Amino acid sequence: MPQLEIDQSLQNFFHKSTVALALSYAQDDQHLALVNEKFCALTGYSGDDVLGRNCRMLQTSHNGMHAKNEDARTKIHDFLQVDGPMTVRTPIVNFRKDGSPFVNLLFMSKLKATSGQVRYILASQFDVSRAHAHLLHDYDLELDRALKTIKPLLDDHNIMIEGTLATIANSTTTIAQAKLTLAEWEQNSPY
User: Fold this and answer.
1) In this predicted structure, what is the pLDDT of residue 88?
2) What residues make up the domain containing 184?
3) Predicted confidence band at 7 (pLDDT cuts at 50, 70, 90)?
4) Is the residue at 1 inside a domain?
5) 176: which DSSP letter?
6) Exposed e or buried b for every residue in 9-23, given b needs 16+ CB within 10 A?
7) What is the pLDDT of residues 134-183, one digit of tens each?
């Protein structure tokens, strides 16, 4: 299936964003079409390393470590279904290019054409494993601003972003759980 060309205004938005962003095509294997510098700084991968690949590559390190992520994978699988939810937000253990693990608070939203067909998937990533509550709160505010900013850009191209950022009830609990998840993973890792 031929891939869609990414509009310049959307590319500019990505490059100026203050949060880590990735855009994948909704077809086939949802391979990455666009990432920004914040994504590259967070993961250690360059755009050339990841474009054309599915983001699930972040679930395995270069030396073969693999996080199970059962709950997160179920939520993402449900999200990717045609009749699935329009957004998902879940913590997931990912690996940087150097092999170091982190708990990624992943947010994903479907971007639909006016015909109703999902054309892209917008994702944002945030390392909650080593964060403090105020940093997560600041990230939530920045992500909310990013979603509000991208909406008119997409509207101009007859693409709709579905849903809005689900607020986190308790940032402290989210961070504590992420740190516990990472500590348990590192303790049980065979590497």
Assistant:
1) 87
2) 8-188
3) confident
4) no
5) H
6) ebeebbeebebbbbb
7) 677 787 788 888 888 887 777 776 777 765 544 333 444 555 556 566 66
Total domains, the chain: 1
What CATH number is associated with residue 151? 3.30.450.20
Residue 2 within any structural domain of the chain? no
